[in-house]
Specification:
The protein is α+β, with helices and mostly antiparallel strands. A three-stranded antiparallel beta sheet has the order 1-2-3.
């Protein structure tokens, strides 16, 4: 009977030792999940923006349409970027009609992670996606 009395309170000590490790593990799981969701959203935005740009008739319109589509897709994905950069490579619009050409969109989104209370977790993570879409070789270009 004295051996059971010696273990009294051991469960509380074990919980006190394991709780911080479990909270840390949970924080890193949330960090990894949030990063993956952000990456998927940025990839979807790059894909939609490149497709929208490839339908434009000239480089200036392609850039404007791609930027607007990227912002709209990120908003629809409910991704709140601290900073967003949309780069549109419109060099393909200089190619004469009848020759294959591409338009490439690169989107960089800085996602805040400061609300995660875990050590060694950065305050923000930069997520980038690149997508290339072909321009119709026989479409009229201006």
């Amino acid at each position: 009977m004295s051996s059971r009395m010696g273990e009294r309170g051991s469960m509380s000590v074990e919980l006190a030792l394991l709780a911080p490790a479990l909270v840390l593990l949970l924080s890193f799981a949330v960090f990894a999940g949030r990063t993956q969701v952000a990456h998927n959203a940025v990839e979807a935005a790059a894909r939609a923006a490149a497709r929208e740009a490839s339908l434009a008739g000239d480089a200036a319109t392609a850039t404007a349409l791609a930027s607007a589509q990227a912002q709209q897709t990120l908003a629809a994905q409910d991704l709140r970027c601290q900073r967003t950069r949309v780069d549109v490579d419109t060099a393909g619009f200089q190619t004469p009609p009848g020759q294959p050409a591409d338009v490439t969109v690169t989107i960089t989104c800085v996602v805040g992670m400061a609300d995660l209370l875990a050590p060694d977790v950065p305050g923000a993570v930069s997520v980038e996606a690149v997508f290339t879409s072909p321009i119709d070789a026989y479409r009229e270009r201006r």
